[in-house]
Amino acid sequence: MSTNSSQMPSARELYSLDNPIFCCYVFWATVLVAKMLLMSTLTAVQRFRYKIFPNQEDLFFKNTEVQFNDPHVERVRRAHRNDMENILPYFIMALIYISTNPDATVACNLFRVASVARLVHTLVYAVYPVPQPARVIAFASMQLITFYMAAVVALRTLRFI
Amino acid sequence: MSTNSSQMPSARELYSLDNPIFCCYVFWATVLVAKMLLMSTLTAVQRFRYKIFPNQEDLFFKNTEVQFNDPHVERVRRAHRNDMENILPYFIMALIYISTNPDATVACNLFRVASVARLVHTLVYAVYPVPQPARVIAFASMQLITFYMAAVVALRTLRFI
Amino acid sequence: MSTNSSQMPSARELYSLDNPIFCCYVFWATVLVAKMLLMSTLTAVQRFRYKIFPNQEDLFFKNTEVQFNDPHVERVRRAHRNDMENILPYFIMALIYISTNPDATVACNLFRVASVARLVHTLVYAVYPVPQPARVIAFASMQLITFYMAAVVALRTLRFI
Fold first, then answer.
1. How do residues A80-120 score in pLDDT, each as one tens digit?
2. C15 close to A (CB below 8 A)
3. What is the distance between the alpha carbons of residues B55 and B67, in angstroms, rounded to a whole number?
């Protein structure tokens, strides 16, 4: 890995705000974290709108009982679960991808496309459902980008298996 | 970001045990990881106590069948899912928040309050359910702290959009 | 922590590909990320095979309706959720464990055993179900390793509580 040490910025500065690639990752990761937290809020909005609560202690209204499987609540919960399945592994994958010191233009555009795709995914899944293949395309965008990063990183570190 | 490099500790040492902020993050992240793993144990305890198993190969007792939707098991599973929805994004958000080299007192106290709040959340949700708003307050504490970190980081890295 | 700074590699280079421990973590984290993403693909395969779709806009075949709780689909989804519950906290725990600059042989073998155990877990849970205790052993392997790392890290950073 001596080739790496001779590059600018040196390997030891990759995880700092001196590295524009890390800055771009940090910005878009922040957007995705905020988006994910808002899914909890959206679930709460749906629960209050349709008065669907899963715990005895949450029954804020009289004459309601614990209820599950309401389609409006469950749609948001499926979208939220899909976020966890895809965005959380992406966070780690993109973070370690930075350690390979990739080309800045390529890396930043991957972060941008993947993140915007997930914003679109939430819109077409949980906010305003539209016909397929809108959701499939949004889903596949981040997944393919994560696989690409995985391939780059795996080839680079294969001898440490 | 040249201002950052002139500070002590320099940007390149932010992610090391030489940085007290990172140490504090590391300690409390470890507590939360252990707490999350114990949710699996708690789920298993409830499954054995009420003999509720979701897979054919898990039927350790005679005369039992696969069963779902037991309220005691599902309560722990909801608490565990809520952990994943909130703590896992917090791990990434707090980690990249450290890259902005925040004030040590502010940062450490944010980590402490957020982490203790989630311990309380588990107690009042999965271990010993108490009336609201106990759980809502515990939930909101980490969420607001994560949003605060997101705002700090997003403003700092906005030009890398 | 001055002892740490005097070691080779110095603390500031722990999170770079110059550190073989980090390389080993990176390789196996990449394998686990790819494995987790393939769970989504496996879920999709099961959904098409048994024509079980949870959203109105996903009904690609005539004469199908939204359906839930199909045992073939739900088994893969339980395995996927179990991945999220265990692998995602492991990613963070192992990452911060590296900051303690552990012995390379110990650390790398922990990463290898934990990762291979989760590959086995997926095989015996979602792909080809086998009798217990195969799944319990695979599950416990990564969990015990994560707890071990948590203990090492917590003892090292306890004074930052």
1. 999 999 999 999 999 999 999 999 999 999 999 999 999 99
2. yes
3. 8
Nearest to B34 among C88, C129, C147 (CB): C147
Which are the contacts of A33, defined by CB distance < 8 A and separation ≥ 6? B89, B92, B93, B146, B150
Residues 51-70 of A with CB under 8 A from B: 54-58, 60, 68
Q: CA A137, A141, A142, A147 torsion: positive or negative?
A: positive
> DSSP character for A12?
G
pLDDT on residue C8: 47
CA atoms of B17 and B70, how far apart (whole Å): 45
A133 touches chain B (CB under 8 A): no
Q: How far is CA C96 from the centre of its chain?
A: 15
Give the closest-approach CA distance of C69 to chain B in angstroms. Answer: 10
Residue C11 to residue B18, Cβ atoms within 8 A = yes
Classified as helix, coil or strand, B51 is coil
Long-range CB contacts (within 8 A, 24+) of C6-12? C7/C101, C9/C101, C11/B13, C11/B16, C11/B17, C11/B18, C11/C99, C11/C101, C12/A12, C12/B12, C12/B13, C12/B16, C12/B18
Task: Write down the ipTM of this complex.
Answer: 0.87
- Find the residue in B nearest to C79 (Cα): B55
How far apart are the CA of C9 and the nearest CA of chain A, in angstroms?
A: 11
∠ at Cα A5 (A4, A8), nearest 5°?
A: 85
